[in-house]
Amino acid sequence: MSNVLLVCRQNEITKALTEIMRGMEFSMVDAVPSGSEGRRRLQEIEYDMVIINTPLGDEFGIELALDTIEKYLIGVVLIVKNELADQVEAKLMDTTAFVVSKPINRQLLTQNIKFVLNSKAKMQRLKEQNEKLQKKMDDIKIIYRAKLCLMGYLDMTEEQAHRYIQKQAMDMRISPRQVAENLIRTYER
């Protein structure tokens, strides 16, 4: 199902969190005691979620959360003392990190983890849609450049140039973008 990285310096809490994660059917639960080891592990393995139990041995944990969110499309949950929860939430306000206060309520933690995983999945879909739209925009720009070449060198109207590119694409069984790129190479030397 999903992979989770636990960053926690306390063995007892790591064991308790691991037990909760296994109950949620995570396929891999990996644990490290420090932020630096967490960063190293994130470079080596693809995770779906990072749970940070603050404070860590080498840092508090906010820095790790911010680095993780900036570099990876990963859900992040920070577990902090109840009295620090508002301050940590304020620092992470414009991010997708989720703050859970101690003492940990197992049911609330489970709900938050599910929420973060669902949010991550939605973000992934949005990212893929964005990439598709970006590719489509790039295709349109290249096809338009090819139309300009045809209009400038062969005195075609925009409609004729469009039809020419579409017909070439069908006849040659390639994409209109490939036809446009060939035309640009031919006419823009």
TrEMBL record:
The keyword Coiled coil applies. PROSITE patterns: ANTAR (PS50921), RESPONSE_REGULATORY (PS50110). Pfam families: ANTAR. It comes from the Bacteria. One of its GO terms (molecular function) is RNA binding. Keywords: Coiled coil. Residues 116-143 form a coiled coil. SMART domains: ANTAR. InterPro entries: ANTAR, CheY-like_superfamily, Sig_transdc_resp-reg_antiterm, Sig_transdc_resp-reg_receiver, WH-like_DNA-bd_sf. The keyword Nucleotide-binding does not apply. Residues 3-117 form the Response regulatory domain. GO terms for biological process: phosphorelay signal transduction system. Residues 123-184 form the ANTAR domain. May play the central regulatory role in sporulation. It may be an element of the effector pathway responsible for the activation of sporulation genes in response to nutritional stress. Spo0A may act in concert with spo0H (a sigma factor) to control the expression of some genes that are critical to the sporulation process. This is Stage 0 sporulation protein A homolog.
